[in-house]
Amino acid sequence: MRIHIQLGPDPISLALPALAPEPETGAFVEFRGLVRSTEAERAIGGLVYEAYQPMAEHEITRIAKSLLADYPVQAVRILHRLGPVPVGEAAIYICITARHRTEAFSFLAGFMDQLKKDVPIWKTDTLPAA
Q: Are 28 and 21 in contact (CB under 8 A)?
């Protein structure tokens, strides 16, 4: 499996280049986690993300590799914003290629569940609502 991880302050573009499919690719799945306009039932203008970057990248790689046993995907691209992320923008982007959709969707669901539990990326603050 090919894994590409990028953590940083740059906005996640809606026009990202696609992962190159392999001849056996049958599924191409993309997920964008957007910042909502409310947090804990109050209006916000955005969120601020911080990370212990070396450990976050290590944990993301570990999680992705551990999921391969059950969900053999071909490639994964994971981008996570750090710093301020305004409402409506993506805080995370994940792209997965696999032979079948079942593996791709299951990998995505398992990855997101473990990311939230195990990866040292924190929402540290909210931006004021406009």
A: yes
